[in-house]
Amino acid sequence: MAVVMIFAVAGCKDLQDKGSSGAQGAGGGGAALTAADSLAVKGRAPKTGYSREKFGSAWADTDSNSCDTRDDILKRDLKDVKYTGGDCKVSYGVLEPDPYSGKEVTYRRGRSLVDIDHLVALSDAWQTGAKYWDASKRIALANDPLNLLAVDASANRGKGDGDTATWLPPDKSYRCTYVAAQVAVKKKYGLWTTAAEKAAMKKVLAGCPGQKLPAGGNPTKAPPRFKAR
């Protein structure tokens, strides 16, 4: 797996993320704020009809590497990784630190101390464009490494399906990187923002005007063998 660096400047600490195929890459300096400014603004579409199943089965192996998406992200984001039965199923690892809280969190399979967060929550995506997509694009979003991050479970559950206007990581030093990643996902998939969300994104990124925009990830269409309800 390639090692990819994402740098946050002007008040945001440098962070090193381990990548897999489709991992995040660095964009141009200041690109995050420019990209945020370019996002379309609309009101939220109704949540009517939303369900997790609209985005396919959880953690589908859309990159066809014989490991499910959850294990791919655990392998990418945890340190001191250990496996059960080969080199795919992660049984142990450490978030050092957890990007949301800044604390160290130990992952053990079967215990819910670590979640895989959708940076742009699927229900938020549904209300900002995804309800009008075909299933292939929704499945791609749900399993795209660009939109996924291993995090402390309690912090993630505090976030819920909030957008930038309603929730930011408690660790303030991670906020620039977090918001830049949300912008990257929304831009890649053509999702819009609400006026409040865009204003909140720009407010955060104005404090780190050199923040780069993550890039890469998987294609925006899943292979045809994957289906959603």
Number of DSSP E strands:
9
Structural class, by secondary structure, is alpha+beta
Mean pLDDT rating: 89
Which range does the strand content fall in? 15-25%
DSSP helix fraction:
25-40%
Strand order of the largest sheet: 4-5-6
The number of distinct helices, counting runs of at least 4 residues, comes to 7
Provide keyphrases for this structure.
alpha+beta, two-stranded antiparallel sheet, 229 residues, globular, disordered N terminus
Q: What does this molecule look like?
A:
This protein is α+β, with helices and mostly antiparallel strands and 229 residues long. The chain has 7 helices and 9 strands. The strands form 4 sheets. Strands 4-5-6 form a 3-stranded antiparallel β-sheet, covered by helices on one side. A hairpin with an 8-residue loop joins β1 (3-6) and β2. α1 packs across α6 and α1 runs antiparallel to α7 (195-206). The model is unreliable at 1-26 (pLDDT under 50).
